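To: structure desk
From: M.T.
Subject: fold request, one chain
Message: Could you run this one when you get a chance? Sequence is below, nothing fancy, just the single chain.
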Amino acid sequence: MEYLLISPFFIIYGIFHFYPLMWALWLSLHRWQGVGKMRWIFMQNYERLLTNAKTFNALGNSLIFLLFLLPIIVIATLLIASMLNSPQVKGRTVFRMLFFLPYITSLVIVVIIFQLLLQENFGWVNGILEAIGLPRVRWFSEVWPARAMVMIMVFWSVAGYNVLIMLGGLQGIPHDLYDAASIDGAGTVGKFLHITVPMMRGVILFVSITSTILLLNLFLQPWLLFPGTFGNGPQQGVATLNTIQYATAFNYARYGESAALGFLIGILVIGVSLVQFRLAKSEN
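Reply: Done. Structure tokens follow.
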């Protein structure tokens, strides 16, 4: 009887997860353009990807986004959550809502807002820079400004969710610890470093891993800002593994190669996550 009760889960999992995974693995060993007969080529798709400069360029971009954004996301959201958790801050509920609002806002709307703000000739940001005597920034024409724009947009989109996760962890810390530290003469910085950070280690690890998965699978922000991110110039500066995978499948109809890249991305994400787990375990 117990197996009958849990069978719907396994049926749904098999149809929507296991079968597509096995189909993608089978597809990654073939050359197929969406129509016609599939041609068995074994590991040639993987070999092609691992010898393609575009793959390593996209991998480098993904790692740049990870190395720059991950510490910013973790540290900034922890500091913001600590501020919102302080009883001295008035209107905390309103601030929490304002921080969470970008997370539930449609990403297409967010892209339109950023395009209006950062448009090179008539954007508000360049207008302000020019008004105070600074040169205009070519957000859509140069590599590093384009990367910075994507990073700002990603942080703005995901910070609110992580702030709420951090806030939930902070509210689980017994206030008696802070009272005892105050009696011992500890200041605000001392309490943060010796109570908040150690007690939040599990939450910080969770935010780090989920943010790592998000950043290594970054797709919508660079793709919507630079449609068809597979070309030259600043597009190559923001092309990620996922934009390359999408373009390979739907722009060039190389479905087997795209499936192979999906598995390589999965291996990369699992590997980086395991390293984070191992580092956290060694620190404990």
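Reply (cont.): Residues 53-85 form the longest helix (33 residues). Let me know if you need anything else for the meeting.
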